[in-house]
Amino acid sequence: MDMTQVPHHPCLAYPLDEYHHILPDPECGPAHDIIGGEPSAKGKWPWVVAIVHQDTGSFICGGSLVQKQWVLTAAHCLHGAPADLKIAVKVAAYNLTANDEAERIPIEKIIEHPDYVPSQSTNGVHDLSLLKLERPSDLSDPCISTIDLPPITHEFSYSLLCWIIGWGKTDPSNEGISEILNERRVNVLKNDECQTRWDVSPVKPTINYYNVCVDEEDETSACYGDSGSPMQCYLPFIGKWVFGGVSSWGSGACTQFPSVYMRVSSYNSWIRYILISE
């Protein structure tokens, strides 16, 4: 296999150029998202879903299909939601406002990580929830797919090809989120470097084993509305995209400090246990 090429996806090919940048399909239309983000294209990231209010379709958070009936997202997205709140996910989601054909599947069950505590003192530890859908998503649709969990011991390095995606603000000074899914290539920071950068902030949070940070060069950052959305990395030695992290927290200005994700490899055992036992 030619490791300079990402495997072809039947919904949309996304080849790499010689500088290892994913090239969007020019026929798929413009988009812009994430602080410092770049255009995405419909179907390019087939595992991403939008978590929405079932009746109105209004956006809550992003998420990712890890099995055909299971979505992984950030726990803070739905923590404390009323029991009678009707929530669904839009699979193959792209444009949140368009009258598209994205299927809306109701959520049957929300399973928070048992150690999640919604407090700043936890520094974002265990900020994960698994959502069980009322019915399986249709994986025969070429624009719908699951994303693989990473190897349990894998440490994501600075040299990997990693991308963040989401519907978050494109400008922290603007009201509201982006209508269209956006993307940005990022570099993964070592935790000690991430800690050093956050040590100059007023809050001085602790970066730990459960976190993975992305580089803030070129004003790139996750922002409000990106919560729950994935960071995915391409592992050339297995020839696949894998789930690197779930967008959890960052600075209020959405720039200046690294964005912090939940490191999915740290939670492989819990995720697999839920998927098997439920």
From TrEMBL:
Residues 34-276 form the Peptidase S1 domain. Pfam families: Trypsin. One of its GO terms (biological process) is proteolysis. The keyword Ribosomal protein does not apply. The keyword Hydrolase applies. Keywords: Disulfide bond, Hydrolase, Protease, Serine protease. Signal peptide: none annotated. InterPro entries: Peptidase_S1_PA, Peptidase_S1_PA_chymotrypsin, Peptidase_S1A, Ser/Thr_Proteases_Immune/Dev, Trypsin_dom, TRYPSIN_HIS, TRYPSIN_SER. GO terms for molecular function: serine-type endopeptidase activity. Belongs to the peptidase S1 family. CLIP subfamily. PANTHER family: TRYPTASE-RELATED. This is Peptidase S1 domain-containing protein. It comes from Capitella teleta (Polychaete worm).
